[in-house]
Amino acid sequence: MSRLTIALLAGALIGGATAVAGAQDMEDMTFFITSAGPGDGANLGGIAGADAICASLAEVAGSGDKTWRAYLSTSDENARDRIGSGPWHNAKGELIAASLDDLHGDANAISKQTGLTEKGDVVNGRGDTPNQHDILTGSNADGTYATDMTCGDWTLNGEGAAMVGHSDRMGLRDDAPSKSWNASHPSRGCSQEALIGTGGNGYFYCFATN
User: Fold this and answer.
1) How many Å apart are CA 49 and CA 154, to the nearest integer?
2) d(Cα 168, Cα 165) in Å, to the nearest integer?
3) Which of 66, 76, 107, 148 is deepest in the core (most CB within 10 A)?
4) Which tens digits make up the pLDDT trace of 69-110?
5) DSSP 3-state assignment of 96?
6) Is 203:34 a contact under the CB 8 Å cutoff?
7) Alpha carbons 25 and 17: distance in angstroms, whole number
């Protein structure tokens, strides 16, 4: 067997192992930021429509064998009550939080490097063009409903406001809201243009409940 053949075989084995490892990570994924939304601002088709988007994106990514829920509060439900009890891992298998208390406390590991999409991609943050770190939540820092900040429970694409968090944990100031993953500030409105103008693109968090 020639040295070239040996080298090619070795490369194929390494590549295959990498692909298997990547597939395994996706199977274990229980958290992601949506890589795309419906493009209709904060009108996600209600909470059921948002859940369906999570499930659809997870299915394409190879992690559709779980029950997926959008981390979005509504006037009837808190985001923290929708997503199970953890633990949650991103598309690379990195631990995001071990429990609800960790997720909403200091043990939360969401950052620009770990707050990945279902494809394993980093979401543009502060300093990138365009900045897309505003993630829809409609929630307070503890994961409860932020009153009148859910764009009509995720059915409006015009006037109104949605509470957003910063996926990169960075903002204009060195304070808790600027660094909050789920409760940084209200959006300028509910339209796609308003979400983009604030520093987002209509993305939201998805968690597997099981």
Assistant:
1) 9
2) 9
3) 66
4) 999 999 999 999 999 999 999 999 999 999 999 999 989 999
5) strand
6) yes
7) 12
